[in-house]
Amino acid sequence: MKTVTDKAARDKRGKSKNARSRSDEEKDLRQQQILEAAIIEFDSNGYEKTSMGAIAKRAGLSRTLVNFYFGDKEGVHAEIERKALASMTEMCVSAAKRQKLGIDKLLAIGRAYVRFQKKYPGYFEALARKEDGQIQKQLESPTVDSTQVIAEAINTGIADGTVKHNFNNLTQASLALWATAHGFIVIAENKGTVLKAHWGVNASTLLKSLDIAITSMFSNSD
Q: Are 111 and 180 contained in the same domain?
């Protein structure tokens, strides 16, 4: 009798665990559904003109459910930013780790940022929309971000003799690389027709020249 009772209890616990697992999966799917809908709305209409109702409608869910998961529009955008930063940093870290020399790490990080924009254009735009206050809050976060990855690569390059820079400090040098890569990507994405018509340069060629820019800024080739 005890064996039967124990088996029934185990079966009940197993069913409860499976039910929770399915519930968590459904929650994750719904949240991702909302975030993907929000990215489309933000890109199409801008942050200010996008409403929670529009996000809910595009996601095919009730506004009440969207509010339940994220609270408000700022909450939705904050989660997009969190995922964007995590994805971007992961790609940059992974790219840098595959290289030994500091200058090669910097080049790999620049290329990884280009790939990030291609793979996650919505995430890229979300980060570009960050306000100064949001950026400051992120910089104060204890988590590793892409500028820290750049700084580590610069330090590696200085130590192995492949990197030098003329900036006042490591922070300026790291931000300069990030700003340069970001600028190349934005121009390539938004000014492709002008580039081709006036200078005979297509967007892909411009992005390839990012390597030249990074090398000229940081290479210790003298």
A: yes
